[in-house]
Write a structure and sequence with these properties.
The protein is an alpha+beta fold and 209 residues long. The protein has 6 helices and 7 strands, in the order βαββββαααααββ. 38% of the residues lie in helices and 19% in strands. Strand 2 and strand 3 form a beta hairpin. It is globular. The structure holds zinc ion (ZN). Zinc ion binds next to loops.
Length: 209
């Protein structure tokens, strides 16, 4: 689970175990969950590795616990969502190639190439899902730009713009938003489309044509 954390990474790190997180409902049954310890993991931001605390919540009814990741984290990725998004955004928009984008972000070229390839491989699915989410949230339907990568980028931007009208989302920026609504699985390896979740609303992305 990913919560729409607006805190700067420094502030999140400084809060340690005392970090204030929302008491989310169980993703399976919607029932109340209680805090259930947690774990530490690293994130890399601005070329520096930081250790963060990730709380776990447990649903007594389902007897399952869920990690509650802040939105600046992507599942199974060391680098923060803004770093990954900056590289993907530049390359998919055709601003520059992977190598200069990686150098600007301060990440290894091979790491950046992996993100770009994964995003490219999922671009149609992401584009369709986020475009539909944008409309669901009251955004204007628009003609998708040519090219799957540009389409996905535009759709993420449109969905973020529509979500920014709801309380609490604007401060996140588009890449934290994309991480939060996709459960951190924006560039995850799994083939199944993630549910897009905005607050208490769950949104099933349509299957790409
Ligand atoms: Zn439950």
């Amino acid at each position: 689970m990913v919560w729409p954390c607006p805190l700067p990474v420094d502030a999140y790190v400084a809060a340690g175990r005392q970090v204030e997180v929302p008491r989310a409902g169980c993703p399976s049954c919607g029932g109340p969950m209680t805090f259930w310890s947690g774990y530490r993991r690293y994130v890399r931001v601005g070329g520096r590795c930081r250790k963060i605390f990730v709380p776990r919540l447990r649903c007594g009814r389902c007897r399952v616990s869920h990690a509650l990741l802040p939105a600046f984290v992507l599942a199974w990725r060391l680098d923060v969502a803004e770093t990954v998004g900056a590289v993907i955004g530049q390359v998919a928009a055709g601003v520059c190639g992977v190598r200069p984008a990686a150098a600007r972000a301060g990440v290894p070229h091979t790491t950046a190439r992996g993100w770009v390839r994964r995003f490219g491989g999922r671009a149609v699915e992401l584009g369709v899902g986020f475009a539909a989410l944008a409309v669901e949230l009251g955004g204007e339907p628009s003609r998708p730009p040519a090219g799957a990568g540009r389409f996905a980028l535009a759709a993420i931007g449109a969905a973020f713009e529509a979500a920014a009208g709801l309380p609490g989302w604007l401060a996140l920026g588009r890449w934290r938003f994309a991480s939060a609504v996709s459960g951190g699985r924006l560039i995850a390896a799994n083939k199944s489309s993630p549910f897009l979740i905005v607050g208490r609303r769950r949104f099933m992305p349509p299957v790409p044509p």
